[in-house]
Design brief:
CATH class of the largest domain: Mainly Alpha
Number of helices: 22
Number of strands: 28
CATH topology of the largest domain: Topoisomerase I, domain 2
Distance between the termini: 78 Å
CATH superfamily of the largest domain: Topoisomerase I, domain 2
Strand content: 15-25%
Helix content: 25-40%
Radius of gyration: 32 Å
Strand order of the largest sheet: 2-3-1-6-7-8
């Protein structure tokens, strides 16, 4: 029996070959052959290709960027995949190997998002190889010993859908696909013929940066004044109960100089900072002018040669095995990056940094130590030495002693309510290896408390919100546990990419500003689901639930339709404010035209296929060309609400630039109100966005109770409503019942 080892990329295939004895052969008594993908070989087809049993008109409507086609009905989706451009040769090569073996061993990367599993299973699924025997190699790195152990102890697999990592990756992939709808909503609402890309992490980044920029820009210095004391060592003594005043002149002059009484001296220590992840690394380098996409590309090349560890990890610690593997190289790494090996006095695993859990381990140097920094630059480019030194110093700091300092506390003899505190450094420890401005304590003072303090009127200035930077943004995302370090970095590289036609953010040496399109996007996002950080945080929780088998992908994706309905209304409302604030006028996009012979004249005509948010179906187009009247549900451009439209093709006149132009197009008949049972409730009424369940109840004639309606004056009220024909009216509409 022969088995095939499927790796994620050729470099991994070479590492496996080196560990097992070649690209094919026998190891541990089993015949094997290695084949490699090149990352993803398949991707989801375009939305219009996903429809099950849909006709040309349905596909055309799905393809059109039109709010009337949203939200998509994913119950009709085939979730069809197509080969990625340029992958056909690799697919053929992989197929030729996998189709001939008895067992397929999945040896793609163990990503925290399950991406490696998705790469392998999508290949197996598309090549229709589910009848094979399957197993999974689980490894923390590509060292020969790790790969050999993973081969011998590989885990049997029953089926694709039994794998939690695949299920969560499949959900994430489908969810990201569905957020294309939000890109369409934002782009259409803005009306600037620009694509405003949205996504669960992109939109959150834009929202966070926009809010921080506004806080930084709109900061107003409003000082307060207070009595305090300062000693000869520049230590301040503060009474938290001391009153504050708006002007310096209001502060009473009631204190005189006083002796300082030392209350305590306490020796304290601080352990080294946690190991870097890819986001932290990229953020540190951004201040040196290194772009995130360059960090990603360079790091990947270094990883393939085992110069650095696996990039896309979410681990913050390393295992004992990983610690022991790298420890023999510590002195060599230290000399390479200019650290004195004598500082590395702690050669035992730290409980804060080394744990018996995790997979790939935190980002760190690899087992292959380069000969020199010049050699690194020569092989991988000018950014590589910067990457290596940051990772090396972060790792080496773990082997250095704790930072030691003395915490001193004292009070004023004459005014004991005034307290002074200071931290006096005693031993640099790990800070001599890997120091950051964030590591300095606010009350650090090398001299300690003084002996005498004098009163002063102290100006208290509220700190100005910092200008957003990559470092700041990565901290915000990490604090909220949104995404892995690698995901944050790759998304940041995407939204700041200089090659994008419509970039959202600009990065200048780590400082972030909004692009023209990012500013528009930010102004559209308030109150949306896609821009809500809570929504993104919940997604990661859902991914964990799907992996655990406590919820299904179908159930988790069902909420997206409600997000879309809500965000259509919210973004259209925000767009009106955006246009006013930025002085923008909506630009009309060119509409798709339909050609045919009009029965009324017997002559060929060309007219728009869409009217007021509705894309005409093939049947409706035939009726219009035949000269007949049609009725359909349209969307009000002003309110975003649906209404019944009735009309036919007619000759009309348009005035533009002082000139009149004749054209043929759909002409609504507002003299006769459309009626009947085909009408559907509006998406929103009095600022409440109806859920899919509520719309279903309204269509079914049920009354529903809502407690968050809002009047035109902004007052919230509750009401029971139904959908029907009110007395004296010929059309269906929302009817409130207050009795």
């Amino acid at each position: 029996m022969t088995l095939a080892i499927l790796t994620e990329k050729p470099s991994a295939g070479r590492a496996f070959g080196a560990a097992l004895g070649g690209a094919q052969g026998t190891f541990n008594g089993e015949s094997y052959v290695i084949t490699s993908a090149r990352g993803h070989l398949f991707e989801l087809a375009q939305p219009e290709e996903q429809l099950l049993g849909g006709g040309p008109s349905e596909a055309a409507a799905m393809k059109a960027w039109n709010l009337g086609t949203l939200p998509w009905d994913i119950s009709k989706f085939a979730w069809k995949r197509v080969p990625i451009k340029g992958a056909s040769d690799t697919i053929k090569q992989v197929r030729s190997v996998l189709s001939k073996v008895d067992e397929i061993v999945i040896a793609t990367d163990l990503d925290p998002t399950g991406e490696g599993d998705a790469i392998a299973w999508n290949i197996i699924d598309e090549l229709k190889l589910h009848g094979k025997k399957f197993s999974r190699m689980e490894f923390t790195d590509e060292a020969p010993a790790s790969l050999q152990k993973a081969f011998v102890k590989r885990r049997p697999i029953v089926s694709m859908m039994d794998e939690g990592d695949y299920r969560k990756a499949d959900f994430r992939n489908k969810l990201d696909f569905l957020t294309m709808q939000h890109t369409r909503i934002a782009s259409l609402a803005a009306g600037q013929n620009a694509v405003l890309r949205q996504g669960r992490l992109k939109s959150v980044m834009v929202n966070l940066v926009g809010a921080q920029l506004a806080a930084h820009t709109n900061y107003v210095k409003i000082p307060e004044y207070q009595n305090r004391f300062r000693d000869e060592n520049d230590v301040l003594y503060i009474n938290p109960e001391e009153p504050r005043f708006k002007t310096e002149g209001e502060v009473p002059n009631v204190y005189s100089s006083s002796k300082v009484v030392l209350d305590s001296r306490t020796d304290k220590t601080t352990a080294p900072r946690k190991l870097l992840d890819l986001a932290g690394l990229s953020a540190r380098l951004s201040g040196k002018g290194v772009k995130a996409d360059v960090v990603l590309a360079t790091y990947q090349k270094m990883y393939e040669d085992q110069v650095v560890s696996y990039p896309r990890t979410e681990d913050k610690t390393i295992t004992v095995e990983q610690f022991n593997e790298l420890l023999p190289f510590a002195n060599k790494i230290a000399v390479l990056v200019g650290v004195d090996p004598a500082l590395l006095t702690e050669r035992s695993p730290r409980k804060t940094h080394v744990k018996d859990s995790g997979a790939h381990g935190a980002n760190r140097p690899g087992p292959k130590v380069p000969a020199s920094m010049a050699a690194i630059e020569a092989k991988y480019g000018p950014v590589a030495p910067l990457i290596y030194e940051e990772l090396a110093r972060s790792y080496l700091a773990m082997l250095a002693a704790d930072y030691r300092y003395e915490a001193q506390v004292g009070h004023l003899e004459s005014y004991p309510q005034f307290i002074g505190k200071v931290s006096v450094p005693k031993f640099a420890g790990w800070k001599a290896v890997f120091f950051d401005a964030d590591d300095k304590d606010d009350d650090e003072n090398t001299k300690g408390l003084g002996t005498k303090a004098d009163p002063l009127v102290f100006e208290i200035i509220p700190p100005r919100p910092e200008h957003p930077s990559m470092k700041w943004l990565m901290k915000q995302l990490e604090k909220r546990d949104v995404g892995t370090g690698a995901t944050r970095t790759s998304t940041y590289a995407d939204v700041t990419g200089t090659k994008a036609k419509y970039p959202l953010l600009k990065d200048a040496r780590g400082k972030i500003t909004m692009s023209e399109f990012g500013d528009m996007s930010y102004r559209l996002l308030p109150g949306t689901q896609i821009g809500d950080l809570t929504t993104t945080e919940q997604v990661y929780g859902v991914m964990r639930d799907i992996a655990a088998g406590t919820t299904s992908t179908d159930d988790a994706l069902a909420v997206v339709a409600d997000w879309v309905r809500a965000d259509i209304v919210t973004m259209q409302r925000n767009a009106a404010t955006m246009h006013k604030d930025l002085g923008l006028a909506p630009r009309a996009a060119a509409k798709e035209k339909i050609e045919g012979v009009w029965a009324k004249t017997g002559q060929p005509v060309k007219f728009a296929k869409e009217w007021s948010g509705h894309v005409f179906t093939d049947h409706e187009l035939q009726e219009l060309l035949a000269g007949n009247e049609i009725t359909f549900t349209a969307i009000s451009a002003k309110s975003g609400n649906e209404f019944q439209a009735k009309g036919s093709l007619d000759e009309q006149v348009m005035e533009k630039g002082g000139k009149k132009y004749a054209f043929v197009g759909f002409k609504p008949d507002f003299s006769a109100k459309a009626s009947g049972g085909s009408a559907t409730p509006p998406r929103a009424w009095c600022s409440h966005v109806f859920t899919a369940a509520e719309i279903k109840d309204l269509i079914g004639g049920k009354k529903i109770y809502i407690d968050d309606f809002m009047s035109k004056k902004g007052a919230t009220f509750a009401a029971t409503v139904s959908f029907g024909v009110e007395k004296g009216s010929g059309t269906k509409k929302i009817i409130p019942h207050f009795g």
